[in-house]
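Every protein is a chain of amino acids, and every chain bends into a shape of its own. The protein below has been through that process, and both of its lines are reproduced in full.
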Amino acid sequence: MEVLTQTTQLGSSQSGTDGSETTSPTSTPNEMRMDSPKKRRTTRGTDPCASFSQENKFEPAAECCSVISIANSLMPGDSARVVFDAMVYAIQNMEIITSEVFGTIMIREDTDFDSNDFALLRFVLTTPQGATTESNSVVFTKYVDSPDGGYGIVCSDYIDSDDLYPYRPKERVRRDTTILILIRAVQKTAPDLSNKHKHVNSNKAEMVIVATSWMCTTLLHAGVGPINEDLRDFHFSMEWWEKMKKYIVQYWDQRFAHPR
């Protein structure tokens, strides 16, 4: 678990473990610049393309919670914008993709796509076992062009209360999900096996697209009683991200790599 250790060290250096190292909103630019060399020393040797995943589960009263972190998942293509657009497309068509990929029945009760970087999504999902869940979320997306390849951010959070479309706690399991996804172009260095002169720098640099995601899902089921393992496994499995990633890869391949 070397990568996980490196990432933990990186997080400790940036945020501090006791609060004293956290950058204060009132810190001066000079103070922040003085801290930069320390951060560079801490991140030295970490591979931006190395991947790891971690899952934590909690079960408070009448709730089930899962936190999944997937760092540096390599995506196809040489453009962060293309992968970002594919990700946004997948989110906007979540009910179709989920029904096709997982064999469930997912219905969009209401949607609002008035803005390209903002959307409201309300879904009702019925699993093959007959359990029904509902969700109400707001999604923000943003892409930033930059000389080093650009990056895109997808942020989704649940709506706690909606007077127009209230939850039905006695009929459905409420699913609250918070998702953060960062898609960026990263320069990956690989050995150049064609270069036989060992005294010459024989590394080739290529741009790869990396997706880093963090997802927290909570199932609130106080009104419907205990939930079965199948429903819990469906929403909490890391397989969900892997299947969504596979769909995005297929979409990218059909749309951009091999268009008809």
Summary: The domain at 51-193+200-257 is CATH 3.30.530.20 (Alpha-D-Glucose-1,6-Bisphosphate; Chain A, domain 4). The first strand starts at residue 52 and ends at 58. The helical segments are 2-15, 29-43, 80-92, 94-102, 229-236, 239-257.
